[in-house]
Amino acid sequence: MKTVIADKRWAKKYPHVGTGPVSAEPCISPEYFELERERVFRRVWLNVGRVEDIPGPGDYLVRDLTACNASILIVRGKDGVIRGFHNVCSHRGNKVVWSEKGTCPGMLSCGFHSWTYNTKGELTWVSDEENFFDLKKEEMGLTPVHTDIWEGFIFINLDPHPRESLREYLGGLAEQLGGGYFDRMTRMYTYRVDEKANWKIALDAQNELYHLPFQHRLTIPNFCVSKDNRYTRLLDVRLYNHHSVYSSETPEGLVPPPVQALAFRLEAAAQRCQLPRIGDFDFYTIFPNFVILLFKGVSQDYYMTYNFWPLAVDRTKWDLNIYFPPTEHAAHRLSQEYMKCLLRDILQEDAIAHEAIHSGLASKAKTQLFFQDDEIQIRYFHKVLENHVGLE
User: For residue 66, how far is the Cα from the chain centroid?
Assistant: First the structure.
């Protein structure tokens, strides 16, 4: 790893982001949380899954978005098109679908009175229809939600009139990560954590490497740590309108623990599979709550996604998905199992820290957050958030 002098280079590159303290109040304020719900989560593009989650006609998934007071149904139609709807029956407002995912035979029926919709959201059958008054089924389909797909990731926007298309919203980030790389990998493992912490605290804690030599000194010693000063240094930081990415390299000559070294040797026999990485480890924050992490493996890259879903000002559902290339042999599978377990242990350490940080800030013993130069991406996130919350 090349020697990098701590010369505050990111503040020089992005002077508009600033260098001063950031208020901690938005992380614990119920009033601010209500503004986030209305002015952020109900107005921007949100990732809700991948196309592989609903591969065939009639496959569906449901996302209950507490922050938006909404239940969203995503379904692949008989024509292969993926559409999004409010999961609300036109009759009396009941949920049409209660299961988190499944397959329907071309129709979806509300369990309350059996009003039935096709996979295009059209109301096709009403029980005891002749007993209603001037019912116009053609005008009473499921309420659509703006839905779009980028690189296999499904996004929705609850704003009836989105300010930007998904492509415009992603901006240069879409170009950086484009190219169809993600469909080469499949989701192998999923973790879900219910945390007693604000969603921004959880995201901030992941959105930097400064903590690695300390919090993860036993699980991943020396990962992305400079040999010169034993701290982490970022290889690159890029800001994309609403979003950001930071990148880092692993130090040259790093000697991993014995079991990890064995897992690396097992992986080395697999065929090369690469992602569009900047460095060895890239962390993309897609505003507001979606993260894509790219990892360089010995012979095969892999990636993870985070979704930080606000449940309350002091509670977050953290969804984590790990995507690997298809396994080629037993040794390859064993190496992936090892990485899954290692990541689980690292993330458990993180989850404990998230709750401790929230508890500390909730005490109001400290009212400001201080970020160093290699945490500029967190400072930028708070700046973007404030710009959105300030919108009327």
Answer: 16
Place of tokens 């990415």: 245
190 three-class SS: strand
Task: Give me the count of residues in the chain.
Answer: 392
- Residue numbers of the domain that contains 245: 9-42+178-389
36-76: pLDDT as tens digits:
999 999 999 999 999 999 999 999 999 999 999 999 999 99
Whether residues 92 and 202 share a domain: the answer is no
Q: Is the domain of 224 the same as that of 250?
A: yes
Bridge partners for 354 per DSSP = none
Its pTM surpasses 0.85? yes
CA gap 271, 302 in Å, rounded: 13
Q: Are residues 141 and 225 in the same domain?
A: no
Q: Give the span between the Cα atoms of 93 and 78, in whole angstroms.
A: 25
Task: Answer yes or no: is 33 within a domain.
Answer: yes
Tokens of 333: 């599978």
Q: Is 178 exposed, middle or buried (0-12, 13-18, 19+ CB in 10 A)?
A: middle
Cα distance between residue 366 and residue 368, in whole Å: 6
Q: Amino acid letter at 135?
A: L
Pick from 133, 161, 189: which residue ends a domain?
A: 161
